Automatic annotation (TrEMBL):
Source organism per UniProt: Candidatus Collierbacteria bacterium GW2011_GWB2_44_22
Domain of life: Bacteria
Pfam families from the UniProt entry: YgjP-like
Entry protein name: YgjP-like metallopeptidase domain-containing protein
InterPro entries found in the cross-reference section: UTP_pyrophosphatase-like (IPR053136), YgjP-like_metallopeptidase (IPR002725)
Classification via Gene3D superfamilies: Metalloproteases ('zincins'), catalytic domain
Domain YgjP-like metallopeptidase: 19-226
Taxonomic path: Bacteria, Candidatus Collieribacteriota
Amino acid sequence: MPLFQYKVIRVRKLSIATTISVHPERGVVVRAPFWLSSSAIQKFVEEKSEWINKHLKKIGSTVPEKKYLEGEMHLYFGQEYPLKINLINTPIRTSVEMAENSIKVDLYQGHTEDKKGLEIKEGLLRWYLETGISVITEKVNFYTEKVGVNYSRIDIKKVSSIWGSCSPNNRLSFNRKLIMAPHEVVDYVIIHEICHLVHRNHSSRFWALVAKYDPKYKEHRRWLYRNHLLLSI
């Protein structure tokens, strides 16, 4: 499942190549021959994700670059919290935790200023990964029981061009940046991938199953499309 929403236009010509365009108003548009399967189109889009994200940023990115300073706001499940930096006298590994409506960072004060920013960024990345493993596993177990399916493994990706995926051997993978999105949006991505354990395509039956467990899935999908650039560390 890519980080962005895209529209597929089927063309009734045997010789047409599959193409992608990015528009300020229409977003990402894929033109594909009518005979090409949905899974093949999704694979093609995922392969072009880097190019698509590059062009999406060109037409819509106004997100300021993070500085990793005291009081800077960072997202955690759809809510913004200020960084609270706690300087420690002895050398330690930078650690991050939620504390008193802020994101508390324990940081060795002996680092240079440039190194401090890098350490805070790396600490946040580890924290999102560790939190993601716990929260997403709990959510996956909840929804797989409801749907009545089983998975083989859950992975939280450190770097990924997609929000989630379901492999042929029932391995579910998710992007750790999801921890910055609202819970209902995280649930949508999880439900989306779990439903692929039943339907390995994006057929009407697949979307009907998604809607059964997330009636507002279209709203949550739009949220990701409109806000995915905000989910940056």
